[in-house]
Amino acid sequence: MLEATWIEWLVAALILLGSLFALIGSIGLWKLPDFFMRLHGPTKATTLGVGALVIGSLLYFSTRGEGLSLHELLITIFLFMTAPVSAHMLAKAAMHEKLKRVERTRGEPWDQ
């Protein structure tokens, strides 16, 4: 049986971390009560999750003798540049439309 290298451990850690962040962001999108709170799920956690997955894939395929994948590098850069801009634009549009926020008190369950 072959011994795992440190690159394989790093790729595995990035894939697990990315999957965990994507799952947390998706649960946040599903469970949070209003638009402004739901905006944080895909723009924060899911962006980090997908970014970690793509970086893990980039490392894996670049160590397999295929060289540095320009496509995956461009996807990562594009993802990290456009996610904050799109979140800002969505929040500005919601404020322009005077979208109501959910007023909450302490102790209320999230799924009401």
SSE blueprint and pairings:
Elements lengths: L5 H26 L3 H4 L1 H27 L3 H27 L16
Any overview of this molecule?
InterPro entries: PhaG_MnhG_YufB (IPR005133). The chain crosses the membrane at residues 6-30, 42-61, 73-91. Keywords: Membrane, Transmembrane, Transmembrane helix. The protein has 112 residues and is mainly alpha-helical. It has one domain (6-96). It contains 4 helices and no strands. The protein has helices spanning 6-31, 35-38, 40-66, 70-96.
Order of helices and strands: HHHH
Give the N-to-C terminal Cα separation.
Answer: 53 Å
Annotation field: number of helices: 4
Strand-residue fraction? under 5%
The share of residues in helices is over 70%
Tally of distinct domains: 1
Shape: elongated
GO molecular function: sodium:proton antiporter activity
Pfam family, one: PhaG_MnhG_YufB
Keywords: Membrane, Transmembrane, Transmembrane helix
Organism: Pseudomonas jilinensis
Offer a few descriptive terms:
single chain; 112 residues; mainly alpha; elongated
Summarize the structure.
The protein has helices at about 5-30, 35-40, 40-65, 70-95.
